[in-house]
Amino acid sequence: MYKISSDTIARTIVTGLALFNQVLAVTGHTPLDLAESDIYQIVSLGCTIVMTGVSWWKNNSFTQSAIQADKQMKLEKEVKKAAMK
Q: How far apart are CA 32 and CA 24, in angstroms?
């Protein structure tokens, strides 16, 4: 799986907000009053929340099949290690 850099995500969100602000301005609505540091903080918080959730979920087995798969993987590693000796 490929990893999208946080810089790419931040630039994409900033571009989206700029386009959204432009649409608001063109339609006569008040644009969002966000400073660059505000956007950075929001993007950083979002990335932290998402990555925390993903890493927590991927490294913990909750379902019965995941627990069984962990046991099988451990057994296969032991067999492979024993075969290498």
A: 8
The pLDDT tens digits of the residues spanning 11-63 come to 888 788 888 988 988 999 888 777 778 877 887 888 888 888 887 777 678 78
Query: Rounded to an integer, what distance in angstroms lies between the CA atom of residue 82 and that of residue 85?
Result: 5
For residue 77, the enclosing domain spans: 6-84
Total tally of structural domains belonging to the chain: 1
User: Which residue's structure tokens are 């032991």?
Assistant: 78
Q: Note whether residue 71 is domain-resident.
A: yes
Q: What is the pTM of this model?
A: 0.42
- Do 4 and 12 form a contact (C-beta atoms < 8 A)? no
Spatial CB neighbours of 51, under 8 Å, sequence gap ≥ 6: none
Task: Evaluate whether 24 touches 30 at the Cβ level (below 8 Å).
Answer: yes
